[in-house]
Amino acid sequence: MVCCANSDSLHGSSRDKADAKPGKAAKNRQYRRKLEQDTRNEENAVQSVRASQLASLEEEVLKNVEEAVRIKVEEAMGSEEVKQRIAARLREERSKLEAAVNAQVEEEKAALMERKRREQEEAKRKQDELEKILAENRRKVEEAQKRAAQA
């Protein structure tokens, strides 16, 4: 019987070990999952910090570049060569504008003169027509007077 008792106790203890193993395995899996989750959280946090640092660095670099460009532009605008180029360009644009205004004034003047010429021609035509009518009327009056004198 001892043999059987030992066998039962062995079986009983192996059953206890088998029951205990799933508990430990589950805890190990749970621990590993938690560890993986913590690792992912840390990686996300590190990535977030890096992204923030990169954005901050980009912003600082952008400010530095803008400042450098502003300084270069101010220096260039202050140089005598640039001032002369600007003055020459202004003179050129002014002369173009003056030429355009003069051309427009000449066109308007020509149009006005043409209109006045047409008005004068129309007035002369009307005057000639009126004189013709008056001459015709005088002729008719003279003829009527001659007929009346003959009658």
UniProtKB/TrEMBL annotation:
Residues in the signal sequence: none
Protein name: Arginine and glutamate-rich 1-domain-containing protein
Polar residues composition bias: residue spans: 1-12
Species for this entry: Dunaliella salina (Green alga)
Region (Disordered) residue spans: 1-47
Pfam families the record matches: ARGLU
Superkingdom in the source lineage: Eukaryota
InterPro entries noted in UniProt: ARGLU1
Keyword line: Coiled coil
Coiled-coil intervals, chain numbering: 87-147
